[in-house]
Write a structure and sequence with these properties.
The protein has about 325 residues and is α/β, with parallel strands linked by helices. It contains 14 helices and 14 strands. The strands form four sheets. It has a four-stranded parallel sheet.
């Protein structure tokens, strides 16, 4: 740089010509310094600016205060770790200047054994309700339904319950009407709602048959409550979440250097797998990172590891979690 600056002045450029040097442009750790041809070399050395960097020379540098729109974005300077398989739903953070670090700690795969799911599909007309708790449950159930030489016409007369608007949207994508989208998913509340649909013809859930296609490993609270209420419920595995083979050396380095602002976990599995992949010092790597989770089950997994959850939205959706992350960043910015 000193040779370039010297040559510019030797060939007629004024020593007072404005200069800007930008390191890691458009990244969270972007650093911009300004000066003139006379002093920019000394400033670069003083601020320890190293490649990769871009140098801008001329009067345009004086427009910096008016054109620094990117650095004024509310999420500028933040890296957000996404541990789910796809980063869909996190786009608003990127639009506001954050850099998304995708590190999926689960992969969705078909179940190792279809026996239970096939048995349920073979008697599909016997069910009063099918309850879907995720888009994956919808996709893998309907895929297997069609592989068994059936289609959505075989669901005629069965009421459909979707947990969450995203799940409902996935169901509707197949041309299937959703009868119930509860505001929140808890065993007692959902049972009462279903009882309301069934009316006075049943006592509790006696005689009501439910199908809950779900992940291979899932909690038993809701099925147990259904059975206690006199209902019948089958819970075949429609898919499974597996830990991918990965090492995460780059992510470990980012965490050690304090270059991750927020780590997001959308299920207990994403967190547990993350801890396993990161190894023995995983808790220390997250100690100074703001942890955001999608619901109380994930929060308990984090707290069980001795870590603190700082962001948990009232509504268990990615959109709500993203909104809370934006609010968190705004508060931090206001406190500076």
């Amino acid at each position: 740089m000193d040779v370039l600056v010297k040559k510019l002045m030797e060939n007629g450029r004024s020593p007072d010509t404005p200069v800007a040097v930008i390191r890691w442009g458009t990244r969270p750790d972007q650093k911009t310094i300004t000066g003139t041809l006379r002093d920019i070399v000394d400033i670069v050395k003083e601020k320890d600016i190293k490649p990769p960097a871009v140098m801008v020379i001329g009067e345009v540098v004086k427009l910096r205060e008016r054109l620094m729109w990117y650095e004024k974005k509310p999420m500028f300077g933040h890296r957000v770790l996404v541990t789910r398989e796809h980063a869909g739903g996190f786009e608003p953070l990127e639009d506001l200047g954050a850099e998304m670090i995708e590190f999926p700690t689960i992969e969705i795969a078909p179940p190792e054994n279809y026996d239970e799911l096939d048995s349920a599909i073979n008697k599909i007309e016997a069910y009063n309700w099918i309850i879907f708790t995720s888009g994956n449950g919808v996709k893998y159930f309907l895929k297997r339904l069609m592989e068994k030489d059936k289609d959505i016409r075989d669901l005629k007369g069965i009421k459909i319950c979707a947990i969450g608007t995203k799940t409902a949207a996935e169901i509707k994508r197949y041309g299937i009407k959703v009868d119930l989208i509860p505001e929140e998913f808890n065993a007692e509340g959902l049972i009462k709602i279903i009882q309301g649909f069934e009316g006075s013809r049943v006592q509790g859930l006696k005689g009501v048959r439910l199908l809950l296609p779900r992940a291979e490993k899932a909690r038993e609270i809701f099925p147990e409550k259904v059975r206690e209420s006199g209902g019948e419920i089958d819970v075949p595995a429609a898919y499974r979440a597996v830990k991918p083979e990965m090492h995460g050396k780059r992510l470990k380095r980012f965490l050690k250097e304090g270059r991750i602002s927020v780590a997001t976990f959308t299920s207990a599995s994403t967190f547990d797998n993350f801890m396993e992949i990161m190894g023995a010092d995983a808790d220390e790597l997250l100690r100074d990172v703001t942890i955001a989770v999608i619901g109380p089950v994930t929060a308990r997994a984090v707290e069980k590891a001795g870590l603190k959850v700082e962001i948990m939205p009232e509504t268990a959706t990615i959109e709500a979690m993203v909104e809370d992350i934006i609010k968190w960043a705004a508060k931090r910015q206001a406190a500076v």
